[in-house]
Amino acid sequence: MNTQIAGSNERVGSTASHHEVARKILLACGILSSVLYIVANDVVAAMSYPGYSRISQPISQLSATFAPSRTILVPLITLYALLIIAFGIGVWQSAQGKRLQRVTGGLLIAGGILGLAALAFPMTQPDLSDKMHNILMGTVTPLLMFVTIGFGAAALGRWFRLYSILTIAVLLLGGVLSGIQIAQIAAGETANWFGLTQRTLTGAWLLWVTVLAIVLLHAQPEQTKS
Predict the structure, then answer these.
(1) Judging by beta carbons within 10 Å of its beta carbon (0-12, 13-18, 19+), is residue 11 exposed, middle or buried?
(2) N or C: which end of the chain has fewer CB within 10 A?
(3) 198, 178 contact by CB (below 8 A)
(4) d(CA 168, CA 162)
(5) Which residues, 6 or more positions from 224, have their beta carbon under 8 angstroms from its beta carbon?
(6) Tens of pLDDT along 108-129?
(7) Under a CB-based contact definition with an 8 Å cutoff, are residues 222 and 33 in contact?
(8) In the chain, where the domains are located
(9) Three-state SS at 5
(10) How large is the angle between the packed helices 99-118 and 70-94, nearest 10 degrees?
(11) What whole-number distance in Å separates Cα of residue 66 and Cα of residue 124?
């Protein structure tokens, strides 16, 4: 009898250990996704687009139908979206009863799916006039980011909540600047810092994802219980 109990405990322990390894791999996908996004857009794609300016031109132009970098970038962005989905699953699995954290994981999964869907609506003109692309990337995606950060902030500790509030402040400021620059472009004027503004916004989001992944990777199982 004791031997049977010991064997059962070993199997349970082994299953739990495998589950924990899988959870950490999924969480690590969050860090990897942020690194991949930067390398894919600002290194690989930008270098394959002659004359492209990271300071003045939007990130979306790198995957536009007219961009020479589209062929190489689309598979990388697809991989990025899949990594975000995997990360969202990891956040969900790390919740252990925390409903707000589960919502955060679900929103991350939705963000990854939205990223895949957005590939079907690339920019087709260099003047930012594509309606569906602008709705997805200029309205839906930023709104989803705000909501995800909000739920993530509420789910975790005080310092992460403060950090998330700071991230939201950066996104709001960047959003205002982007709106002004988009209006300039629509009026036929030149927005010399549009690319830099976009990259600041995107960088704030990518950093938040990375910090969230690190926090959950270092959290002990009992720390994530409600």
Answers:
(1) exposed
(2) N
(3) yes
(4) 10
(5) 94, 95, 96, 97, 98, 101, 216
(6) 999 999 999 999 999 888 877 7
(7) no
(8) 2-224
(9) helix
(10) 170
(11) 7
| 75 phi-psi bin (left φ>0, alpha ψ -120 to 50, beta other) | alpha
CA distance 133 to 139: 10
Residues 140-152: pLDDT tens digits?
A: 898 999 999 999 9
Q: Tell me the C-alpha distance between 183 and 194, whole Å.
A: 11
C-alpha count within 13 angstroms, C-beta hemisphere, residue 18: 6
Q: Which amino acid is at 56?
A: S
Q: Check pLDDT > 70 for residue 226.
A: no
CA 124 to chain centre: 24
Q: Map tokens 């309205």 to a residue.
A: 139
**Percentages of the chain per state (helix, strand, coil), in multiples of 5:** 80, 0, 20
